[in-house]
Design brief:
single chain; about 200 residues; alpha/beta; Uracil-DNA Glycosylase, subunit E; 6 strands; about 45% helix; about 15% strand; binds uracil
């Protein structure tokens, strides 16, 4: 069994917050264990709770469209959420739910070791930059050691505010070039390569 699958079994047993009482299915996340690109959404909605899979409703359809703009499919990436269980009525995640669920996403990231994390919406942005506002830093990558964090609006935002659609699409189109930058981080710098000649 892969390490990620073992983790899914652990997550499925989680009773660490009250959301466990309301869920139909846990939604741990899905995608490639070797993904370089990891997307983090907010929380499962009704469709995700029914299916046990992330981003399968309307926002998921738009996310699939966004991925297709840059030649990616769901199998190329990994998608997870800040919360693994649906908040009743799709309400916003509560601070204590985010805190008790954080360990699962930490372990997913540790296993997958992505080169770039795309945060979708303000809750996943807050995991990295709690003081920042999405309106200011969407589409602007930041480096955290060897990881690039790239904030984007949540795809559902485009469904509510049509004007955001183009903004989200243009942020998405930058992903390949930003990812290409991150590929260089693990290569030795020019200086180090020159030194190793001696
Ligand atoms: N919105 C999210 O943030 N995550 C999902 O999985 C679905 C909708």
């Amino acid at each position: 069994m892969s390490t990620l699958t073992e983790l899914y079994y652990e997550i499925a047993k989680c009773q660490d917050c009250d959301l466990a009482k309301h869920r139909t299915h846990v939604v741990p996340g899905e995608g490639s264990e070797n993904a370089k690109l990891l997307f983090i959404g907010e929380a499962p909605g009704w469709y995700e709770d029914q299916a046990g899979r992330p981003f399968v409703g309307a926002a998921g359809e738009f996310l699939n469209h966004l991925l297709s703009l840059v030649g990616l499919s769901r199998e190329d990436i990994y998608i997870a959420n800040i919360l693994k269980c649906r908040p009743p009525g799709n309400r916003d995640p509560l601070p204590q739910e985010i805190q008790s669920c954080q360990k699962w996403l930490d372990r997913q990231i540790e296993i997958i070791q992505p080169k770039m994390i795309v945060t979708l919406g303000r809750y996943s942005l807050a995991r990295y930059f709690p003081q920042e506002s999405i309106g200011k830093i969407h589409g602007k990558e930041r480096r955290l050691n060897n990881l690039i964090v790239y904030p984007m609006y949540h795809p559902a935002a485009a469904l509510h505010r049509g004007g955001l659609r183009q903004v989200i699409e243009s942020d998405m189109r930058r992903i390949p070039q930003v990812l290409a930058q991150s590929e260089k981080f693990n290569e030795p710098s020019i200086e180090a390569q020159q030194l190793s000649l001696f």
